[in-house]
Design a protein that fits this description.
This is Uma2 family endonuclease. InterPro entries: Nuclease_put_TT1808 (IPR012296), Restrct_endonuc-II-like (IPR011335), Uma2 (IPR008538). The chain is α+β, with helices and mostly antiparallel strands and 192 residues long. The longest helix has 17 residues.
């Protein structure tokens, strides 16, 4: 006897956007690889890491802003929807965009790992691929689990060709077009 497989129709981007519009404010949804994912609500240290990075970006590149939780169209052919912890773009970037922005003009996407079971798949595998496919030049992953900063760059064919991983405390050089050096010593104090 052959096992019966159930075929479920895949959710469309439009259906996801409708679902996300009606989700409670305490729930943050993303749509990656055709699946709806719940992004955990952040904790205080997570928020402080984003504030630290926002201040550094503003000091070094005042014409840019690190927008938090900005809805972005990602993945191949923009069929995915993600809410990066930070999106570095020219000041005024999201004006007139509605809930979801195209990635044109975005210099960097930022994620800070959360303490949940999906963080490995989401932040270390799916997000780099989604951001590379959307041609975001730099993806910065602040990984609290192993106390490291990972810089992905040179997107090509839906993948980043270059990846550099450094421990908290190292000086991290964010490549073109970001061109900022980060002293990551303060991150040592912000790990749970």
């Amino acid at each position: 006897m052959t096992p019966r497989t159930e075929h479920r129709p895949q959710m469309t981007v439009e259906e996801f956007e409708e679902l996300e519009r009606h989700a409670p404010e305490t729930v943050r949804l993303e749509f990656l690889n055709g699946r709806v994912q719940v992004k955990p609500v952040t904790d205080g240290n997570h928020d402080q890491i984003i504030a630290w990075l926002q201040r550094l970006c503003m000091q070094h590149r005042p014409e840019l802003w690190l927008y938090g939780d900005r809805g972005m169209k990602v993945e191949r052919y923009r069929k995915g929807r993600a809410r990066p912890d930070g999106v570095l773009a020219p000041f005024g970037f999201p004006t007139g965009h509605g809930d979801w922005s195209e990635t044109t003009g975005v210099l960097m996407a930022v994620e800070v790992t959360s303490h949940d079971s999906d963080t490995h798949q989401r932040d270390r595998i799916e997000k780099p691929d989604g951001y590379a496919a959307a041609d975001i030049p730099v993806y910065l992953l602040i990984d609290r689990d192993d106390r490291s900063v990972v810089v992905f760059n040179q997107p090509e064919g839906g993948r980043y060709r270059h990846e550099e991983k450094l421990p908290f405390g190292a000086t991290v050089k964010l490549p073109d077009p970001v061109n900022i050096s980060l002293d990551t010593e303060p991150l040592k104090e912000l790990v749970d």
